[in-house]
Amino acid sequence: MKINCIAVDDEPLALDIIKDYCTKVPFLNLQQAFDNAIDTMEYLRNNRVDLILLDIQMEDFTGIQLLNVLKVKPYVIMTTAYDNYALQGFDLDVTDYLLKPISFERFLKGVNKVYDRMKNETQAPEGEKIAAPPADVSDKDYFFVKTDTHIEKVTTSDVLYVEGMGDYWRIVTKNKRIMTLMNARGIEEVLPERQFCRVHRSYFVAMAKIESIERKHIKIADQRIPIGDTYQKNFFELIEKKK
What is the pLDDT of residues 126-154, one digit of tens each? Predict the structure, then answer.
C-alpha cells in the first residue's frame, strides 16, 4: 500500500529534511512540497492526497487555518517547533504531532501510525471503522492497563472517556486520570464494545456518561469532545438505537 503525501513548511531546511525522510520510507509517495499554505490549499482543491506533513507557524496563513478551511481532510501529521499547539492539533483530528528537530526514528513512528490506520480502514467493511473486540470483553466490569510504573486495574463503570495524547492514551475516570502507552487497537480491545464508542481519532466515550450532544461535540463531565467526520455516522446510529 502506498501513501500519497505532501509536505508543507516555510523553512527550506526543515522542508528538505522532511522530503529526505519521505524518500527513505518505501510506502510514502511524496507528490509535492510547498513553502506556504495558500499554494497547498489550491493544490488540494484539484488533487487527492492521503497525508499532509504540515508545519503550523507560517506567514500569512498558518497550518491551523488551513485545516479549518479544508472540507475534506486527509490524515495530518503536524511538524512544529512549538509544543503549545498539541491540544488544538488533536481537536483538529491530527494523527501525530512532531516537535522539531525531528529525528528520522520519530518521523517513521508517525507515518507508521498513518499506514496502520489506513490499512485497518481498507480492510474493514464499508461504514465500519471500529474493530469489534472479542465477545468475552463485551460486558467486562474491569480491565487492566500498563502504565510507566505498574499494571493498573480500571473499573469500567468509572470511565468517562479515553483521550489520545501523542504516543499515550489517557483514561479519564470519575476520580483520576491514567496514562497508558497503548495503540488505538489495544484500547479498542480492552473497552467493552457495548458500553463505549470511538467518536474521533483521539477519543472513545462511555455512552452512558454522555450528558448532551450539540452539533459535532459531546459533553461529558464539563469536557467538550469533538465528533470526527469518520466516526459521525456510526456514533449517531448507536444513539438512535438507544432512544
Answer: 444 434 333 333 446 888 888 877 888 88
* Residue 69 three-state SS: helix
Residue 198: partners with Cβ closer than 8 Å, 6 or more residues away: 129, 130, 184, 188, 204, 231, 234
Q: Residue by residue, what is the 3-state secondary structure of 39-104?
A: HHHHHHHHCCCCEEEEECCCCCCCHHHHHHHCCCCCEEEEEECCCCCHHHHHHCCCCEEEECCCCH
Among 136, 178, 143, which residue's Cα sits nearest to residue 157? 143
Give me 75's grid cell. Answer: 490524515
CB contact set of 27 (below 8 Å; sequence gap of 6+): 1, 2, 3, 111, 115
CA atoms within 13 Å, Cβ hemisphere of 124? 14
- Coil, helix or strand at residue 201: coil
Mean pLDDT calculated for residue range 223-240: 89
What CATH topology corresponds to 3-123?
Rossmann fold (3.40.50)
SS3 93: coil
Q: Kindly state the cell numbers that stand for 94.
A: 491530527
What does each C-alpha distance from 64 to 19, 43, 139, 225, 231 come to in angstroms? 21, 17, 40, 18, 21
State which CATH number among 3.30.70.920, 3.40.50.970, 2.40.50.1020, 3.40.50.1820 fits the domain covering 135-241.
Answer: 2.40.50.1020
> What confidence score (pLDDT) does residue 84 get?
59
Spatial separation of the C-alpha atoms in residues 55 and 35, rounded to whole Å:
9
Residue type, 134: P
Domain ranges for the chain, please list them.
3-123, 135-241
Alpha-carbon gap, residue 124 to 146, rounded angstroms:
28
